[in-house]
């Protein structure tokens, strides 16, 4: 690209292409990991953009499992305290911050969070807004109006959500929200599919559920995240709604958007709607990547 001549005749360096100098930092949701984004990352690469996916503490292929999770009869699955019980929201935000600091030197940074990942991503942005040029919530928790994800999960607007029957045991006693992606019960597995992946091909869904971790550290949905207008609120933000989301219905997505905009009105959400379920990275990663670069 050639330099640009200004009206005064001086030569100025060309502007960087926004896409080729943008890095997407991708934060997964509950029970997933950085692997969740692999197909979307391939699509982003094809569109000329770089990306890096974060593994939050207690997630990904290194996540510790309950001791009986892979044993016949699943001993202790309902009662064994999670080894993730001591993981904090600060720990999760620190993992996001570490990645943001590493990639900042490469140019514009867009932080993308899915579902429960909205809490750690928001706290990271609040801690270091200078590291983020835009934050994108993909059907994700926004603590702008209410500080805990549980505050929205328990709201009347979320009454139509599916998946409550997937939770095992007492989260307070376990220190985690536990599910059983390897359950031998066909009805349980069908509820998992209908909740999160109803538009993902059946053969692909079986691969996805086998990679899920059973434990979400309780701190992720239960810890208050306090945001300020001066820090988080100064970052341009986008919400990607999932139109047929059964895990986090559009009514509660819209509630989070509206309450955040009321709390921080100077930088309101840009809102776009995607077709399909809570998991577009599984069902239509190319469309998701195209939405992100737009």
Automatic annotation (TrEMBL):
InterPro entries cross-referenced by the UniProt entry: AB_hydrolase_1, AB_hydrolase_fold, Sec-Metab_Biosynth_Hydrolase
AB hydrolase-1 domain segment(s): 24-291
A GO term, aspect molecular function: hydrolase activity
Alphabetic keyword roster: Hydrolase
Mitochondrion is among the record's keywords: no
Species, as recorded: Streptomyces lunalinharesii
Tree of life domain: Bacteria
Name of the protein in its database record: Alpha/beta fold hydrolase
